[in-house]
Amino acid sequence: MQASAVNSVRTTADRSSLMNIGRKVDYAVRALSYLAAQPHLWVVGSKEIARRQDIPTHYMSKIMKDLAAAGLVRSRVGRKGGFSLARHPESISVKEVYEAVERPLSLMECLEKDHHCCPYDAVCTQISVWERAQGLLAEYLAGISIGSLADREGLKGRLNGLHS
Amino acid sequence: MQASAVNSVRTTADRSSLMNIGRKVDYAVRALSYLAAQPHLWVVGSKEIARRQDIPTHYMSKIMKDLAAAGLVRSRVGRKGGFSLARHPESISVKEVYEAVERPLSLMECLEKDHHCCPYDAVCTQISVWERAQGLLAEYLAGISIGSLADREGLKGRLNGLHS
DNA sequence: ACAAGGTGGATGCATTAGGTCTATATTTTA
DNA sequence: TAAAATATAGACCTAATGCATCCACCTTGT
Question: How far off is chain B from A92, nearest CA to CA, in Å?
């Protein structure tokens, strides 16, 4: 009788989380992509987003909270409530989304400002390598907008479209 | 009288492993950097590497095993045994090192060949983004050689050098 | 008033990161 | 040949993390 039946189809076969973008970011991008394709300021309920993009319902609530806290979406509480983008879709980058739900992009602790991760940072030969790698990544992701990923139908809809 | 006293000075304050290069890779690069600065085919015992680069001794043994299995170092068993680079330092890339001790560089499961991580890959809007990001990263890391990171003295030695 | 929504937080579980230890096989050298 | 120093193989341990689920509460439209 309720929408809880389907859920994520993924197997538990997660291999490593090192150097991996997590599901949280995946889900966040999916959700925002869906919102990005709606009419301006259109409010969409979380159930709808979750269903169309196949995101675990309750988990997404937490994610949307993060996105709201970061100022990427606006939420409306109460009946007929839901979410809408708080900014122009073209102005929201994937890097921002990542940092909204995860943390500032950082390939190693050493690279975090004022973190002084290990006593050797003054003489470390690798720091500059990871720093540059991280810079490349950040620059690229900052250049990709949610607008460019807009998805009016949602994954489910488009997948079924292929089948028909 | 023994080398076991110091160990890693890092606090336990690891934050997240998502999108993080792990310590294993850090240690592997340190070890290879040290070997890269030795005379050609010079054999160095693991105790010495561990001491000079401040790597947990037993943990490093496991790492060296991976590096040997990947053909990056040659090992010599028995007394006076140890490790030496199996290839020219300039020909060993950081990407290879990463993949020797960790796994093939992959930002998301979806990107792994033939993994078919989720039912939506055919209609996914984000895959190409992560694919390109991963490509940039891989390309950059493939261009950095262990030779360019060679460290004759090791972190400890060079740090003390600064103090004097 | 009440139902449909978001908010905030407690809780849970499987896996991984990171590391230690021991037993064994191999080689040098005394 | 015995002993010492080394790598190898793998079992084992622990805290933290990833990925959720659930619930009690507060807001708002009808």
Answer: 14
Which pTM does this prediction carry? 0.91
Contacts of A156 (CB under 8 A, 6+ apart): A51, A52, A53, A54, B120
Structure tokens at B92: 């060993």
A1 touches strand C (CB under 7 A): no
Q: Helix, strand, coil: what percent of chain B each, to 5?
A: 50, 5, 45
For B107, the closest chain A residue by CA position comes to A20
Nearest CA in chain A to B139: A133
Rounded to 10 degrees, the C-alpha dihedral B83/B87/B93/B94 comes to: 0
Look at residues B5, B133, B131 and name the one whose alpha carbon lies nearest to residue A143: B133
Q: What confidence score (pLDDT) does residue B119 get?
A: 87
Query: What pLDDT was estimated at residue B111?
Result: 83
For range B45-65, the mean pLDDT: 97
Task: Look at A63-72, A111-120, B2-11, B59-68 and tell me which has the smallest mean pLDDT.
Answer: B2-11
Closest CA to B17 of A22, A128, A14, A24: A22
Query: Chain B within 8 Å of A17 (Cβ-Cβ)?
Result: yes
Residue with tokens 């960790």: B102
Tens digit of each residue's pLDDT (9 = 90 or more) over A19-68: 999 999 999 999 999 999 999 999 999 999 999 999 999 999 999 999 99
Which of the residues B125, B141, B149 would you substitute to probe the A interface, choosing the one with the greatest number of A C-beta atoms within 10 Å? Answer: B125
